[in-house]
Hints:
Blueprint: H1 5-18, E1 22-25, E2 40-43, E3 50-54, E4 59-63, H2 68-76, E5 80-81, H3 95-100, H4 108-111, H5 114-117, E6 118-124, E7 130-134, H6 146-149, E8 159-166, E9 168-169, E10 173-180, H7 183-194, E11 200-206, E12 209-216, H8 218-227, E13 231-232, H9 236-244, E14 257-261, E15 275-278, E16 283-287, H10 292-301, E17 305-310, H11 324-337
Parallel strand pairs: 1-2
Antiparallel strand pairs: 3-4, 4-8, 5-9, 6-7, 6-8, 10-12, 10-13, 11-12, 11-15, 14-16, 14-17, 15-16
Amino acid sequence: MADQSKQLQDQILAARQAGTKLNITGGNSKTFMGRVAEGEPLIVGEHTGIVNYQPVELVLTARAGTRLDDIDAALAEHNQMLYSEPPRFGGSATLGGTLACNQSGPARPWTGSIRDQVLGIRLLNGAGEHLRFGGQVMKNVAGYDVSRLQAGAMGTLGVITEVSLKVLPRPAASVTLVQDMPLEDVVGFMNARAAEPKPLTAACWLDGKLYLRLSGARSAVDATADKWPGEIREQGDAFWRQLREQELEFFQGDAPLWRFSVKSTAANPGLDGPWLVDWAGAQRWYRGDASLADMEALAIAAGGQVSLFRGGDRQGEVMHRQPDALKQIQQRLKRSFDPDGLFNPGRLYSWM
């Protein structure tokens, strides 16, 4: 447990004076994301420790460099959890990096994202000011919700030093159902199941098989498992962990990995090759070589966006292009938080 906020602040001030760019790093578990990193390392991974944990209030505050595994261990003592199920990526994932990259797991459509868990943050801006946004209770935001603006900003809007977030009790029971199903049928079936008032907490299709996870009260889980088709998969939790951590065979190899975020009811983009459908159809993964422009056209037709998540050309753009109006808003936000452009230049977009 170590408070490194003063050291981080001093390095920011020195970099501002020298005109040096800074590359924010935590546990180095997500260096494959975004464009190629530039700048002198600003290491947040040594700024660690749980600052406050109130199990009765279901609120935890920790420094940004705290590893998710350490947070898991503390929560497990009280049978609680990070309900957005963010990936640990080999155990090195940190709380700040998880928020900055907006990473969530299979339960995202039902329990919420890491962004939804956040109540407040502390942030070092480009002027070296240590600011606080939000707090430790719900409905405490007036104006822009700066805490949640950090989700997916990949460090371009400042250095997250502390995060307060909601946690939840672990479910009493969990069952995974598996059945054979062709890709063309799965989206409609997933959405029909998701519309029912049942304890569904994950839905994934891979290699001709549909996986559904039921979690919650034992009575509700058992009653639904008896009613819905599919065989119970022994040790089903292992499948969802491998999906969350991208350890399934689908994710192995050097082929570029594309992430589509689209309407859950949209037909699968017309592209031959290996697919994985997650989040009841709202998140879809594709492995293969393609141009960003062609993938964007497919994503727009499906009512969403696409990004080159892993592999491929990291020198070019990897995120879906933004409309001019939104681009201008993002650039204004960048100038407000980081007027000298110190933090992670070009990591999210070439123009930030």
